[in-house]
Design brief:
Layout (H helix, E strand, L loop, with lengths): L15 H31 L6 H26 L2 H19 L4 H29 L5 H10 L2 H17 L3 H23 L17 H21 L7 H22 L11 H19 L2 H9 L3 H4 L1 H17 L7 H19 L9 H28 L6 H29 L4 H20 L12 H4 L5
Helix pairs in contact: 1-4, 1-6, 1-7, 2-4, 2-8, 2-16, 3-4, 3-7, 4-16, 5-13, 5-15, 6-13, 8-9, 8-16, 9-16, 10-15, 10-16, 10-17, 13-15, 14-15, 14-17, 15-16
Length: 468
């Protein structure tokens, strides 16, 4: 863990380069995330490949899972700088591939590389924070990360739409290259302060060979890929699609057992419970938020533009909740976690009212705003707890485990809800079931939140990620 210093500000001379560079990198990633969602429909229409939309969407999700698992091992062995550099290079190559694509195969290749880049950057930046910042400054850093999503969430879709209609969708991707260079230059001073790794960390009995990690990560990616695509074809080809969903669910579960800390599925005290909470929170929040634009369009008659208000609410209220957790309020992380999960559970319960066409949608959207505050409190606290339960030998793997738990649980939640939408006429009853299920998952997290406080007899070594 980094040594405690007398510096108490992210904007001191010592920490300012890291704060600016890291926030700039997160902001770039947020803009890219929002931009792709806006430009991709136009892209597939131009190539007359609307049927490939699901493939282009699922490709980076699958490669992200592989990247997360490998990035964790890499960061533990070599430090955060090599994964970050590789992630930046892959990000640039991905934008070039998509921006110059002559057909969908090149787009899919670029999307796969984009997922790999995102995983490397996500793990690398977290390990960099763990090693470069004192523990008392991490909550403020994570609140800045959440704030970095506000502007992309509010103006990103509009700006992307203007660029797409004015000069073409290709410049949405190629334009990111012009931003990547100054962002990387901002981050370089902080990277230069990182000492070179002296070699692989000392064995702790909890590590695994990269080949072992890769094997299970590829299985998880294939399972997630199958889950992401099968739901779209469930109505047209129910038997093969259902078989793919069953195999995907089994593969996801088997890989998760190997890639996540032992005891995660039992919500065992300590790090396994923290990772489990990441799964609960991600599945509940993303499993609901992904369907809100469609719900608002079908049930309440919103236009595609106005239905995007749910995305704006997500970005703003998540940032507000994260700002609250970053304040010096004197509460223990476990208490903040409970407050966040309670707000999310209550907010999702109110959000369920959106499924009723007879009620004003503003009521349900207020509930979604409360859920956003809850997620803003919950997500950074879970990151803090993961870093607090790690040391230099397992920071990467533990950060990776938390991200993997969120990704795999979200994929499972979206597969189930997607199957429900495919098999029924998507209307109030279907949406009520989806939103209600999200609230139940959040409640499960709230009821088990106290288990993130580990027994004093437990050690970091015993709680580290084990793959056997």
């Amino acid at each position: 863990m980094p040594a405690r210093t007398t510096t108490s500000s992210l904007f001191s001379r010592e920490h300012l380069p890291l704060a600016i560079g890291a926030v700039a990198l997160v902001t770039l990633g947020a803009f890219e995330n929002r931009a792709v969602g806006t430009a991709l429909p136009t892209l597939v229409r131009e190539f007359d490949a609307v049927s490939s939309f699901g493939l282009a969407t699922a490709a980076p999700i699958a490669s992200y899972v592989v990247s997360l698992a490998l990035a964790g091992v890499w960061a533990d062995r070599s430090g955060p700088v090599p994964p970050l550099r590789a992630g930046a290079v892959l990000f640039a190559v991905a934008q070039v591939l998509v921006g110059t694509a002559a057909g969908m195969p090149q787009v899919i290749a670029g999307r796969l590389l984009s997922g790999l880049a995102e995983g490397l950057i996500d793990v690398g930046i977290m390990v960099l924070i763990a090693r470069a910042l004192p523990e008392e400054l991490r909550p403020r850093m994570f609140s800045l990360f959440a704030a970095a999503w506000v502007l992309p969430s509010v103006v990103g879709p509009v700006l992307t739409g203007i660029v797409t209609e004015g000069v073409g969708w290709r410049w949405v991707f190629l334009g990111a290259l012009a931003v990547l260079v100054p962002v990387w230059l901002l981050l370089r001073p902080a990277l230069r302060t990182m000492p070179r790794a002296a070699g692989p960390p000392a064995p702790t009995g909890s590590g695994a060979a990269p080949r072992t990690v890769l094997r299970w990560a590829v299985l998880a990616a294939a399972a997630v890929f199958g889950l992401s695509l099968a739901g779209e074809h469930l109505a047209a080809d129910p038997v093969p699609a259902a078989a793919v969903i069953a195999l995907g669910a089994a593969g996801t579960g088997l890989a998760a057992v190997r890639l996540l800390p032992r005891g995660t599925f039992r919500v065992r005290r300590g790090l396994p419970a923290v990772v489990a909470q990441r799964a609960f929170a991600a599945a509940a929040f993303a499993g609901v938020g992904s369907w809100l634009p469609l719900l608002l369009t079908l049930v309440h008659g919103f236009t595609p533009t106005t239905a995007g208000i749910s995305l704006s609410i997500t970005g703003v209220m998540w940032a507000f909740g994260s700002w609250l957790q970053g304040r010096d309020h004197g509460h223990a992380p476990a208490a903040v976690l409970r407050a966040g999960l309670a707000a999310m559970t209550a907010g999702l319960a109110v959000t369920t009212l959106l499924a009723s066409p007879a009620l004003p949608p503003v009521i349900g959207l207020l509930g979604w705003a409360l859920a956003g505050v809850g997620m803003g409190l919950t997500s950074p606290v879970l990151s803090l707890l993961i870093l607090a339960g790690s040391d230099r030998t397992n920071q990467g793997r533990n950060v990776s485990a938390g991200q993997l738990a969120g990704s795999l649980s979200t994929a499972a939640a979206l597969a189930v809800s997607g199957a429900a939408v495919a098999l029924t006429a998507p209307g109030p009853a279907t949406f009520a079931g989806i939103l209600g299920a999200g609230g139940v998952v959040a409640l499960a997290g709230l009821l088990t939140a106290g288990r993130v406080v580990e027994d004093r007899a437990a050690t970091v070594e015993a709680e580290a990620v084990r793959i056997g």
